[in-house]
Amino acid sequence: MAHPDNLSPSVIPPQGPIGISILGATGSIGQQALEVVAAHPGRFRVVALTAQSNCERLIAQALRYRPELVVIGDTGAYPALKAALAGTSIQVLAGAEGLEVAAAWPTADRVLTAVVGAAGLKPTVAAIAAGKTLCLANKETLVVAGAYIRRLAQRHGVTILPVDSEHSALFQALVGEAPASVHKLILTASGGPFRGYTRAQLAEVTVAAALKHPNWVMGAKITIDSASLLNKGLEVIEARWLFDVPAERIEVIIHPQSIVHSLVEFTDGSLKAQLGTPDMRLPIQYALAYPERLGNDFPRFRFSDHPSLTFEPADGSVFRALDLAFAALGAGGNRPCVFNAAGEVANAAFRAGRLPFLGMYHALEHALATVPQGPEDELEALVAADAETRALTEAFVARQPQPVS
């Protein structure tokens, strides 16, 4: 799907500015995407912007970039958004249906999906059905419905360009390489703020500590997922569907410096890696402009600043989410969907002080052991499994003793 030697014609940039629709414009990825746009006047044209609830920031973005469409997911914020943009030519919509309209907007050449969680699934489907080149920052879409999305993209001749730094690195390492020559994909992980911790130490960590990622500046959900290595589990599942590589040929290693973003090992034993500073604007820019590489004034990596790059095994027995992700992927069917839904509920519960850190792993284990197995490529069945898992996990959380603050 995302192999660079199997590109569809839709990935060829248009003659004029590239029309960009940004789903999740007020979040971390969306804001950095707009920084990339601002750094290249005339190269991109923002045609649609969406946000879930941050109306004030969305208004400011709309007035600066003058898209054709803005969408607010929270219907209660619609009147304020509509009033603020009165007198402009900007069309204003609200709700989940509006998000799908933005995903399929006629003048969008590329759609950047930076919506958080499984909520990105339906707009991603809408973008693919409309034949848009997809810049994917919403890994949960492929985790929930990877087989379905892969088949849909092939049917519509749509290329999916990864935005996650690790998957962008894999994509870049694959340029010019035959798919049959790939032996293994190696995803790197910083290890987060609790690298080297024991299970006993993890039992005592706080939300505040988990939100202090050592290298990356990200939203709260992904930062917590990174601290638990649940995010790396999601990335393993995403890589399986993006690059059509089975779970047994995907590996995770800890690389605390976050300079080597991922590697590909080939059948002859050679390795190719993509390196750079931990700056999400780099993979965002690569996806928005692909196949062109644009210059920029972002901070550059210098070996003199990093005389030692280190690597160590990932401990899935302590950071259980990683082993559970591999198990879910190996089991197939709706297991990855269940893994994601339980993870989203558990993450929110931990951030709200309703579940201890290790309780997130227990919630994952409970869901995977309880929700019935189902098909992997029937969208309605996956949506139903997602809803069932969320309800079951909410009930599981409610039964747990409240953690000590």
Description:
The chain has 405 residues and is of the alpha/beta class. Helix content is 44%, strand content 15%. The protein is built from 16 helices and 12 strands. The protein has helices spanning 28-39, 55-65, 78-84, 95-103, 121-129, 140-156, 165-174, 199-202, 207-210, 220-228, 230-243, 281-289, 320-331, 335-351, 357-370, 379-399; strands at residues 18-23, 44-51, 69-72, 91-94, 110-113, 133-136, 160-162, 182-189, 250-254, 260-266, 271-275, 312-313. The strands form 2 sheets. A 7-stranded parallel β-sheet has the order 4-3-2-1-5-6-7, with helices on both faces. Strands 11-10-8-9-12 form a 5-stranded mixed β-sheet, with helices on one face. α3 (78-84) links the parallel β3 (69-72) and β4. It is globular. The protein starts with 17 loop residues before the first strand and ends in a 6-residue tail after the last helix.
